[in-house]
Amino acid sequence: MVELKNVEVHYGETGIDALNDVNIRINDGEFVFIVGDSGAGKSTMLKLLTNELSPTKGRVFVNGYNLSKLKKSKLPKFRRSIGMVFQDFRLIPDMTVFENVAFVLRATDKSKKVIRQRVPYVLNLVKLADRAKSYPSQLSGGERQRVGIARAFATDPGLIIADEPTGNIDPRLSYEIVELLLDINKCGATVIMVTHEHDLVQYFGGRIINLKGGRVVFDDYIGGRGTGEEV
Question: If exposure means fewest CB atoms within 10 Å of the residue's CB, which of 113, 120, 211, 229 is most exposed?
């Protein structure tokens, strides 16, 4: 569960009010698009959810943690409960696809047996089983992002945050990336996807949270024009 209660973020040195009286609750297992123009507050919200930033006012809860009371000793465990998908992929260039995904499992002290079982499973899920021995430089942008999704899901986190995951790939492949995230969501993970691509959001539909000037101006469900689903 993700919840922001009466959250405000004010950058005193610049006089910018990044978020104003934001109240959001995202239940376990939901898929949510967060949209908004540049400067709307999307990046600030992500920093709150990953505990990179503390609110000026209000409280933030993520995966059972009250972030305002989170001790430094528990921060690594909290961070492991979140899988991140980045716009710029952030793959390790001298590691193969298999090794990039296995790296996050090793970082959480998973056994060799678990790694041997889990990595092929997630690579098959993102349709990259045949690219396990390839290096990032040998992949297309869309394939690199699929590795990023596999890596984010490798540790089976409760929450996956995708920050503009379609920003650096061919627009034709953007729909494929969202479909993969929806597949991950069906496996049980809560997914929050931040995007400025309104065409994608309108195509898939679902729950949309629209930020403007640091405020939530829309939080509701819409039908996807490309999916044939009605809400």
Answer: 113
pLDDT at 162: 97
The secondary element (H helix, E strand) that includes residue 150 is helix 141-153
Q: Model's pTM, two decimal places?
A: 0.94
- Domain membership of residue 171 (yes or no) is no
Amino acid residing at 190: T
End-to-end CA distance of the chain, in Å?
A: 22
User: Is 123 part of a structural domain of the chain?
Assistant: yes
Give residue 225's pLDDT.
84
Print the domain residue range for 142. 90-156
- Taking phi over 0 as left and psi of -120 to 50 as alpha, with beta for the rest, 220 belongs to beta
Query: Residue 17's beta-bridge partner residues?
Result: 10
Under 8 Å between Cβ of 181 and 206: no
Q: How many domains does the chain have?
A: 1
- By the 8 A CB rule, do 196 and 37 touch? yes
